[in-house]
Amino acid sequence: MAADGLIRQQYIQRLYVEHQGWLNGWLRRQLGCSQNAADLAQDTFVRLLGKDQDMAAIREPRAYLHTIAKGLLINHWRRRQVEQAYLDALALQPEAVASSPESQALIVETLLRIDSMLARLPAKVSAAFLMSQLHGMTYAAIAAELGVSERMIKKYMAQAMLHCLLLVEEP
């Protein structure tokens, strides 16, 4: 088993040497920032290290690395969107309400967890939750907007609230 681990490590090292420059360049073109590109390229190989699969079975290493990096890039953009939305909302608050950088980081992390949770829910469930919580819409108004019954909105909200509770229980 230790020999398999060594072979795997050597294969990943070879992938890194042969394709890191290409991957970094592709990410730099996508992001327009060499530092973020380097971080995401590194994260791609870290993700590769965490995968439990036969690396020798990868026939198209660049396509495989591209797929991993693209997922990380999407997560990066989503995080930036959430952070920017939070900062925009924060800018509208009086200075007395402003929180410390540490609090802001915790809030952004919480928002990202909520965003991720909502992304895993069916579209109508997350839409109903957001309409209720962010826009203050009534269940009747949400039902009309989504083209479902008010009873279905209650089910959607119960499902979303259950997932919120489960999110609170996560470490």
From TrEMBL:
Source superkingdom: Bacteria
Gene3D superfamilies assigned to the protein according to its UniProt record, in alphabetical order: 1.10.1740.10, Winged helix-like DNA-binding domain superfamily/Winged helix DNA-binding domain (1.10.10.10)
Keywords associated with the record: Sigma factor, Transcription, Transcription regulation
RNA polymerase sigma factor 70 region 4 type domain span: 112-164
Gene Ontology molecular function terms on file: DNA binding; sigma factor activity
GO BP terms, alphabetized: DNA-templated transcription initiation
Domain RNA polymerase sigma-70 region: 15-81
NCBIfam families cross-referenced by the UniProt entry: PRK12528.1 (NF009180), sigma70-ECF (TIGR02937)
Protein name per its UniProtKB record: ECF subfamily RNA polymerase sigma-70 factor
